[in-house]
Amino acid sequence: MLSISLLSPPYATLSYAAPAWLKTSVWKCGQRVVVPLGKGGMLRAGIIVSIDAEAPVKDGVVLKECLWPAEREPLLRPEYLAMVKQLALRHMVTEGEVLGGLLPAGLRTSKLRLRVLDGGKPRTVSLRDIAKMSETERASIGALWTDNRVEILDSSFDAEEQELCSLLVDPPWPVRPSAKRQIEVLEYLQDKGMLSRTRLLQDLGSSVSSALNTLAERELVRIGPREEGTCEACVEDEPECSFKVDEGFTLLPEQQAAFDDFTRLLHEDAPNSALLYGITGSGKTVVYLELAAEALAQGRSVMFLAPEVALACKLDSAVRSRFPSQECFFYNGYQSPAERERTFRTLAERTAPCIIVGTRSALFLPAPPLGLVVLDEEHDTSFKQDEGLVYQAKEVAYYRVQQSNGLLLLGSATPDVKTFHAVQQQAVSMSVMKQRAGEGRLPDVTLIDIKTLKRTDGILALECKQQIRDVVERGEQVVILLNRRGYAPLMYCLDCGHVARCPHCEVGLTYHKERERLICHYCGHSVSYPVVCSKCKGLHYLPMGEGTEKLEEHLSDILPPDTKILRLDRDSTRRPGKMQRILDAFANQEAQVLVGTQMLSKGHHFPNVTLAVVADGDLGLNLPDYRAAERTFQLLVQASGRAGRGEKAGRVLIQTRDPGHYCWQFVGSADYDGFFTEEIERRRKRKYPPFVKLALVRASYPLDWNKGMEWIESLTQVARTLGKEHDVRVLGHTPSPLPILRGRKRFQWTLKSDSWISVRTLYYAMRNAVPRGSKLRISLDIDPVNML
Ligand code: ADP
Ligand code: ZN
Q1: Looking at residues 149-177, what average pLDDT do you find?
Q2: Shared domain check, 571 and 481
Q3: Predicted local distance difference test score (pLDDT) of residue 368
Q4: Rounded to whole angstroms, how far apart are CA atoms 433 and 257?
Q5: Are residues 274 and 207 in the same domain?
Q6: For atom 23 of ligand 1, which residue has the closest CA?
Q7: Residues with CB under 6 A from ligand 1
Q8: Per DSSP, what are the bridge partners of residue 593?
Q9: Is 536 labelled as part of a ligand binding site?
Q10: Which of 626, 595, 624 is closest to 612 using CA atoms?
Q11: The Helicase ATP-binding domain covers which part of the protein (predicted)?
Q12: Radius of gyration over every alpha carbon of the chain, rounded to an integer in angstroms
């Protein structure tokens, strides 16, 4: 009997019989297979998770037979399956959900074809054909399979790869407003990035097909295969190595000490985790690289993870220049499904040590035993995935090094409060680097109170404008952080005072001037602008507040006319290669000013930047999240770290409406230790993590379902009753901070306890109270990073 976890809904693990038409030795644990499901005989892909010698009749039920293997040798090794099982238990989902969430798309398909070589002309049969055959026919192909005379053809994915659509031009596009279909296609590509033609036509309907062709003829859209060796985030060709240390450099004393500490841990015959707490610019990368050399010398593999793709690219080029002859795999969510599938397969078979570099999803690549996993900028929230498959990369990474007695190295200038607490509890070792490598010094930080700033003045205080102008006139560079993209976050009807809102989410729509649209930042819904007020039919909207587009416009008004300004946010980096091009252009000093969202606070190195301005220092402080202060502190210290990395001293100006907040005294001197001491006391007093286990249960139902509220209330009853029994504090239900999203009403419960087991027990009962097929969706987020 084969236990098979399905890689698509219902994601269950089901029992199948090994069929008579194939030898039993064909089936192996970790192997991908195709099985029939349900009465209609739909085909689904699955993974064999265990094999038992039980009879195919169980309690009088005849088991269905597994149809065909999708590969000869299993893709996944036992250790990998063990990791999947552990993740499933931790987050209370099925193993199928875990596998479905982490395998590249091409490895989850059931649409396979076989090439049968039976002496005559080779013929192709699909698994669908096989499902319809008689047992005798199947048995004859089964015999050929055993003889190695049947091959599995590659999935249909490669065909899609030949027709990828991507934008060639940024908005505003030279298209007549009446060309609705063309605009629809352009907007969609701007929103989703590169897509295959098949997918585009699936999503928008085949009626856009001719519009797409027109756009391609007019060279607004490119259709074709991906150019080799490119990822969506990088430039067309091999990214140039932006990280350089001089030939024959020596480690600085602090780097040497850290390296010695970590090397000792690496050689221990036990798993370890350690923190490299080094200020921005202290030279953490070099330590990672030298340590990687140590691990490779031991014959073990190394994995580098970065919180976002531009930083992963930078790490990748650093790795390639340090280890020119070492095999290195680069992996990130922007790569094509085919490319990711190729890397996954190659690594699944590989036994020789290698280096893997990527974003968090690279963590799930099968790999030869790992000696070292480095998580750079470990405090970054993007190491937690909270949509779809929920996981915390740090936990998974630790699980992986445990399997191979390796070392998990976390690096940051502003560690996660939880990590630093673990250091104090001596669960994690730490090395500290307090000096900047090279010439750079930490910048001076000044707070600017903007409580009295009038709306008509724009978002920048006079003093900031003055300093920006001075820096530009001196020929130096400035970065300006504003964590809000678009032109204006609120559109206010001048005639009746109504605010334009998303019909699916009820949040205010953001005005994007370049695209002449109002866009919902939560679900992507958009309408073209100008738009008629839904309440009074007026046409006069007042854009309120300021996003990056407006700030860019404002700056070009107040700075000398030949000043070049670049903008870095999700909108300006949509086209393939754009992000890297903007960063490179700024690094090459082709522009004096870089305006951007938090994207630009992360890890980049611009030696000529002498001023960093944070336009909205307290934007994050008001979020309903116990970690708001921690987030703000980290973001601002990281942003400050962008200034003064070269020979010239740097300055940082932070605008705030809440200058009394305790966070500021520590941001000014980048005093992480001071911040930590204050913050951990607050958490201890208020019983927040790491002093309690905290989880969020989320539930949602469609807006038009009138039974929803009853269900929410009854779930609260379930939670309260069990909460008393199991010593779990239940807070809620409360409407989520975003109470309506994508047409669904949302509620949440906060669970606090000393034990994860109790939290899971409670969630289990809540989930089981919801009948199968209900319109109510419920999910568990352990240690949530995003409380919205
Ligand atoms: P961070 O700690 O912020 O990640 P980086 O690793 O980016 O810092 O290093 C900052 C700069 O210091 C880089 O340009 C790097 O080349 C330089 N650097 C690091 N270590 C040394 C060294 N031992 N000697 C000379 N320069 C160094
Ligand atoms: Zn919306």
Answers
A1: 80
A2: yes
A3: 93
A4: 9
A5: no
A6: 251
A7: 244-245, 249, 251-252, 255, 278, 280-286, 437-438, 605
A8: 478, 565
A9: yes
A10: 595
A11: 265-433
A12: 28
pLDDT of residue 238: 45
Contact in structure between 609 and 478 (CB atoms under 8 Å): yes
Give domain status of residue 129, yes or no.
no
359, with CB counted inside 10 A (0-12, 13-18, 19+), is buried
251 alpha carbon to ligand 1 midpoint, in Å? 10
Show the domain range for 760: 693-782
For residues 467 and 353, state if they share a domain: no
Q: Tell me what pLDDT residue 516 has.
A: 87
Give the mean model confidence (pLDDT) for residues 270-296. Answer: 95
Find, among 746, 767, 657, the residue nearest to 702 by Cα: 746
What pTM value is reported for the model? Answer: 0.86
User: Which atom of ligand 1 is least distant from the CA of 250?
Assistant: 23
What is the pLDDT at residue 241? 47
Residue 244 pLDDT > 70: no
Distance 239 CA to ligand 1 centre (A): 19
- Which ligand sits nearest to residue 519's alpha carbon? 2
Last residue of a domain, one of 654, 683, 712: 683
Last residue of a domain, one of 433, 465, 500: 433
Q: Which of 242, 245, 314 to mutate to test the pocket of ligand 1 (most atoms within 8 A of CB)?
A: 245
194 within a domain of the structure (yes/no): yes
Structural domain contains residue 463? yes
Please give the Cα distance from 565 to 596 (Å, whole number).
11
Q: Are residues 34 and 102 in the same domain?
A: yes
CATH assignment of the domain containing 368? 3.40.50.300
Q: Is residue 130 part of a domain?
A: no
Question: What average pLDDT score do residues 49-62 get?
Answer: 78
Which residue is closest in CA terms to ligand 1's atom 27? 437
Question: Which of 2-11, 396-405, 423-432, 517-526 is the least confident region?
Answer: 517-526
Q: Is the pLDDT at 236 greater than 60, yes or no?
A: no
pLDDT tens-digit profile of 306-330? 998 888 988 998 999 999 999 999 9
